[in-house]
Every structure is written in structure tokens, then in C-alpha cells.
Amino acid sequence: MPSTPWKQRFLACGVGAIGALGFAPTLLLPALLLSFSVVWFLLQQTLEMPCPKRKAFWLGWWFGLGHFTAGLYWIAHALTIDLATFGWLIPFCLFGLPALLAFFTGSAFVLTALWPYKGISRAFAFAAFWVSVEWLRGHLFTGFPWNLSGYAWGFSPAMAQVASLVGVYGLSLLTLLLAISLQYLPSRQMFQRTLVVTLYLGTALLFVWGRGRLQAPDVEPASPRAMRLVQPNIPQTLKWDPAQRETHFRTLLAMTKAPSALPLRIVVWPESAIPFFFEHEPFRRIVIADALPRDALLLMGADRRTPPGVSPLKVWNSLLVLDTSGRVVSHYDKSHLVPFGEYLPFRETLNKIFGPGVLKNISAGTNDFTPGQGHNPLAPAGLPAFSALVCYEAIFPGDVVSPHHPRPRWLVNVTNDGWYGNTSGPYQHLQSARFRAIEEGLPLVRVANSGISAVFDAYGQTVGSLPLHTRGSLDVFLPFPTRVVPPYARWGDWITLMLLLATFGVAWALSFRDE
Questions:
Q1: Model pLDDT, residue 276
Q2: Nearest 10 degrees: CA dihedral of 280, 281, 283, 288?
Q3: Mean pLDDT computed over every residue of the chain
Q4: Residues 140 and 176 in one domain
Q5: pLDDT tens-digit readout, 288-300
Q6: Domain of 280, in residue numbers
Q7: CA angle, corner 176, sides to 339 and 496, nearest 5?
Q8: Strands 462-466 and 453-456
Q9: For residues 171 and 148, what is the distance between their CA atoms, to the nearest angstrom?
Q10: pTM above the 0.85 mark?
Q11: Terminus-to-terminus CA distance in the chain, angstroms?
Q12: Can you say how many angstroms the Cα of residue 431 is from the centroid of all Cα atoms in its chain?
């Protein structure tokens, strides 16, 4: 292994990039485990050098730079939709965002350097610090919990069930412990070998438990409801073209009208499905109502705005529920907006610097979307109550269901991943949404403009799906929620906190055996 700081950092950057193969669509868990194993070895070397804290931080920063650049490169694809306006930002997006996120990983490394004990005690502390920093990344500055380490278990439906107990953060902790404990398997100290073997045996038992959970599902019985998912696959470059909007609208209507072998009661269109403000064009309500199956409700992604002439102008990214008379019977406004995509942070200050109207959001132009009031469940007549999630709201563990209202019976995620083309982004987004179903014990219906649309049952198993960049519809029955609310759905990140405290406690206890 290299012994000079810069050689270590370049190697850390490379293995960080390799670790991104652990996420969708490849889901190569061994690549992520190898990545953490190698960088843990490098960190131990670094901590034996002069000025270990500073060197540890930069080792972690370079590891994070490689990890996030390889894992999040797809975000820059959104800027290619309007190259004339946003093309100059591509290098900043491709490397700038990973460089910022790398400060989180660097913090985990420097915190490990501050841990007063060595050996396997420090290894356990490193795992706890890493997951603590992942949690902070998911909450600070509006949060960005993308590609959490636990998502690498998505390849195994059985192991993914562990998320119902401890959430994806708990799986992240398990991932780190498995990766860095490998070094201690050939240890001369019996207790270290025993600890590692126990850890791997425990993982095997979790796998067996997960298999059993899948083989004996326990769900609440209810009347079956058939639904149709509509995936129009409209290219993002054409989606807002005024000359194409009638064509897009007719496409959605035709796909909705198509006959079905099932008695459809629910039809779902994706995020911002219609290229106009629906509420201010009432004649279109009649057209949509005529297209709906008898007694069906339409769940439609659409933008809302204040009436013309009303000041100040407000725009919402919403999900509307329409009945067969064309009446909006319920709606949800997206509450967790995307920075720089749907609103510009510190807009007033930046406008003073650059001038009003100069800086634009990627999807909202010079106007900011207005956030909604949170995940209050919608319960229109004829439908079981559901929690609506617009776009990337589905990536936030423990924040997809309101704790102040009765538990919904399913989750609806409408999105538009057409911004990201044929990259890993849509696959990673899908994987995140799937884990929300497992954590909450609720089926999840996901409808994307260009894919991937899918229906997951309350155990995260795929009931049906439509592939990326395919125009089509999917008719399925809505799955049922679990009879027993999963532990993570009950207590959320209190479980994460308890796991981290327990891991730090084990690390402290191990310090006595390492002496």
C-alpha cells in the first residue's frame, strides 16, 4: 500500500469510485465492501503519520470525491436539456457537488482520528461515525440522503427486509461493520476473531429471517382495487414545447381510455403530467372525465398557481385527485423542494448581486415553487388513504408519512426522471422508493414520465413495472399494507440513534481488550 499522503489520496479516490458500483443499477455489494475495506486500511496508515487529523480529513475528502462523482454523475445530465442556459454549469455540477458532499466523508475520517483508542475499537467507531455523517447528510441544508450505504443490499430482497427493523441507516451500519471487520478475521486475538465471526453469523441469521418474512407475508385484508399506471415517455426536450402540448395531452387521454381486463378504479399519471395549469383551463376537466373508466379516480401530477392577477404569484408542484365529473376532490403540494431545481436558495440576496431574473432554476425558471404543508394523508371517497410523494420526496427515510395523522394504507410517488436520460439516476431513485415501502410496511405505487414506473408491495417486492424509456401502461391490483406496523415505521430514527450509541458503546468496551 502507498505510504505517501498523495498516493493514498489518489488511491482513496479510485476505490471510492469503485464503491459506487454497489448502488443501482449494478448493486455490486462486494465492490462497496472492498471500497470501505481498502480505505479503512489507508486510514489506519494515515493515523500513524505526523498531523494525522488533517491527513485523515483529506483522505476522507478524496474518498468522498471519487465516491460521489461516480455515483452522482447523472445529475449533470439534467443540464444538457437546455445547454444554452445551463451548459456552463456542467463541470460545477459534475465535480462541485461531490466536492461539497465529500466534506461529510472527510468529517467522518477526522472524527475517527479523534477517537482515543486504536485497533478494532477504532474500527467500530469509524463505522458509527460514517453512519452518523450519512444521517447528517440526509438532514442538513434540506438533506440529500442519496446512495446511502445500506442501499447496496437492494440486490437481496431477504436482506432488504432488515430495513423494516432498523431502516436503511441500520443497513448502512451493518455494511460498514462487515467491510472493515474483515481485517480482523485472521487476528491473533481470539476475541477479535470471535467478534467478526459473530457479526457474519448474525448477518446470515438476518438473511434467514428476511427469507421467512417474505415467505409468510402478513397483510391487512381489504377489497381489491385495480389501478392503471400511465407512463407516456415524453422526452424532456419536448415536454414543455407549446407546439407539442396538445399531442402530449391526447397521448395521456388515449392511454387512459385504452380497455383493460381489470375493473379499474384508480388511474395514475406522472409528475407534471400536463403542460399547462389545469385549474385555469376548466374545459379540459370534462375531456379528462370522459377518458376515465367508470367510477375511477385520477391521481395526476400537475403544477398549480394562484389565479391570474393575484399577487404575489405562487406556484406549487402538486398531485391532484380528480373524479369522473372532472372535479378536484383532493390535492397535495410538494413540501420538500429541490434546491436549484425548484427553488433558488437565498434568491433575494443573489438577485441583488447578479440582478433580478438572471439566475434560473433548472425546472422552475426565474420563479420558485412554493412548498406545501407536509405529508398529510389524502383520503378521497372511494380510495384507501394514501401519502403522496412528489419526485425526490421518496428518498427521505422516516419522512414519507405524517406522524400526526392515522397511518395511510399506501404510498404514491409521482416523478419525472426524464431529466436524467439513460443514466443510473432513475435506477437509484427507484431503489430508494422501494426501501420506503419496506420501512413503512406500505405498498408503493411509483409513476414516472419516462420510467421506471413500478408497484411494490409492502415488502418491497415488485408487483409490476414498466422499463425506462418505454411508453406504456400497467394494470395491476393495489397491494395491501402489513398488518403489524414495522419497528422503523413506529420509531423512525430513534432506532438509528440507539444503534449508533450501542456501536459507540461497543467500541469503547473493545478498547479495554485492545490494550
A1: 81
A2: -100
A3: 92
A4: yes
A5: 999 999 999 999 9
A6: 226-336+371-483
A7: 60
A8: antiparallel
A9: 9
A10: yes
A11: 26
A12: 7
